[in-house]
Amino acid sequence: xxxxxxxxxxxxxxxxxxxxxxxxxxxxxxxxxxxxxxxxxxxxxxxxxxxxxxxxxxxxxxxxxxxxxxxxxxxxxxxxxxxxxxxxxxxxxxxxxxxxxxxxxxxxxxxxxxxxxxxxxxxxxxxxxxxxxxxxxxxxxxxxxxxxxxxxxxxxxxxxxxxxxxxxxxxxxxxxxxxxxxxxxxxxxxxxxxxxxxxxxxxxxxxxxxxxxxxxxxxxxxxxxxxxxxxxxxxxxxxxxxxxxxxxxxxxxxxxxxxxxxxxxxxxxxxxxxxxxxxxxxxxxxxxxxxxxxxxxxxxxxxxxxxxxxx
Length: 311
What we know:
Blueprint: E1 3-8, E2 12-19, E3 22-30, E4 40-47, E5 53-56, E6 61-64, E7 76-83, E8 96-99, H1 110-115, E9 121-123, H2 131-134, H3 137-146, E10 148-151, E11 154-160, E12 165-171, H4 175-193, E13 197-202, H5 209-222, E14 228-229, E15 237-242, H6 249-255, H7 257-270, E16 279-282, H8 284-289, H9 292-302, E17 307-310
Helix pairs in contact: 3-6, 4-5, 7-9
């Protein structure tokens, strides 16, 4: 039976869809992330044309497409956020919005989103056994941060670029068997980490069309719709396109590694049995990323005034 595990953490909320005892989908929702998917709010058109932009009433900007007929620069309208901001090196992608006549509303939070799927949701708490960890939470975060993903018989090397997320397949033995195993591993990683947009997979070069077709079929069997893909070409390359509504887990962790490290540290301390952690030595970057309100919430939840020192 499938179920969502949900944890209201410090600085972030976490959710994982568990299927057959493993994490099939993982989500981290950082507190105060800006506009959430599905938010409806007022905006003013500040630039028309192919790259139209609106200034949002709540602050910040979003890309707008399509532009309603007759709408001119300076006019007010209501928009819905259909893609959250995507963090990228040097030039983050703005949120994407579409015109709407719907009434204003905030976007659903993580708990509301997973509840709406209809799959049972189990809320987990710090004093309980760590169900997320038992399902492989730390291993998944490590894979997302490093891009190193092992599977039986080989390994994937994942790289996130502004243009696409790339997977390179490594391993020994028969190339056809390796590629078929890798196809399933890639599909599971894409789903698990919430990777969308353009995705490229570099499989071993395969000898004939039948082998390349078998690799594509293995990918299709493990992937969840909606998605589109090309055939595996003669060089072993496959391109996949998936909807991209928000940053993937690798993009989220890479956008602020120190803050991600700090939040993971708070999760571990919060789960430490009484008397708790009196002194915690942390890296300089994580120490700088710890927000006073996060530390105050940790003290409130644990009853222990943990002191943080640079290691």
